[in-house]
Design a protein that fits this description.
Strands 5-6-7-3-8-9 form a 6-stranded mixed beta sheet, with helices on both faces. The chain has a 3-stranded antiparallel beta sheet with strand order 2-1-4, covered by helices on one side. The protein is α/β, with parallel strands linked by helices. Helix content is 37%, strand content 24%. The chain contains 8 helices and 9 strands. It has helices spanning 43-50, 84-94, 99-112, 128-140, 158-174, 185-191, 209-215, 223-232; strands at residues 2-11, 20-28, 32-36, 57-62, 69-72, 146-150, 177-181, 194-199, 202-207. The longest helix is centred in the C-terminal third of the chain and has 17 residues, at 158-174.
């Protein structure tokens, strides 16, 4: 069952809509799909469009019913005069979560990410890593059907990264789907079921690692090597 279906004929930031074209993405229950590509390839435009944050597009996007999805942005944003716990309480109210549904799991997440000692401090003053952990708590507390994640590993130390990977695996077992945009290709290679490589606003290759390897003519190559070959093929004479 597809939790996310994206078919974008074209999209951009004005009426010309020339940033991306012919983008097709699906994410099924229990599946993790890696959205990869060089800077300026159109990954952010694709994410903003599928989340409804960009009105300039032609195509169709189908998200899980009842808005059961969570977005974890690359750059966290917080209210400076609100504590971490007040942010969490606000999120629970906006999502209309019952107290018995979220308080226990949130406490566990705060302990897991070593945030329980700063729950009464403003996350706007946190380090990049602590801010990223806070955003992960916000997303995971609702246990949505779909996660859209933009560069989740930036700022996380190795221990926090390992914990996050375990949580993602548990969510996939639960049946959640994950669309993950990342430049950390060695990690993506190990955890993603499929990949979509964007270059110059178009899908350059898609499929399993084996399919990507076949696309670039490098059987057994790493995802990084395939990424480099496919991303530079048309620009290298």
């Amino acid at each position: 069952m597809n939790l996310l279906t994206v078919n974008l004929k074209r999209a951009g930031y004005d009426d010309d809509m020339k940033v991306i074209e012919n983008i097709a993405i699906t994410v099924s229950a229990g599946e993790m799909v890696g959205l990869i590509g060089p800077n300026g390839a159109g990954k952010s435009t694709t994410i903003k469009t599928l989340l409804g944050m960009n009105p300039y597009f032609e195509g169709e996007v189908t998200l899980p019913a009842n808005k059961s999805y969570a977005y974890i942005p690359e750059k966290p944003v917080f209210y400076y005069d609100m504590t971490l716990w007040e942010h969490i309480d606000l999120m629970a109210s906006l999502l209309e979560l019952k107290e018995e549904e979220w308080k226990g799991s949130v406490r566990q997440l705060l302990e897991l990410f070593d945030l329980e000692k700063v729950i009464h401090e403003s996350p706007a003053t946190f380090s990049k890593g602590m801010q990223q952990k806070s955003m992960l708590v916000f997303a995971l507390m609702a246990r949505p059907a779909l996660y859209v994640v933009d560069e989740p590993f930036i700022g996380l130390d190795p221990i926090a990264t390992k914990k996050l990977l375990h949580l993602f695996a548990e969510e996939q077992k639960r049946g959640a789907g994950i669309l993950m945009c990342t430049h950390v290709l060695d990690t993506a290679e190990k955890i993603c079921d499929r990949f979509i490589l964007l270059t110059d606003g178009k899908v350059k290759a898609s499929g399993t690692l084996q399919a990507i390897q076949e696309s670039c003519g490098q059987p057994g190559a790493s995802l990084l090597d395939c990424f480099y070959t496919l991303s530079t093929r048309d620009s290298v004479s």
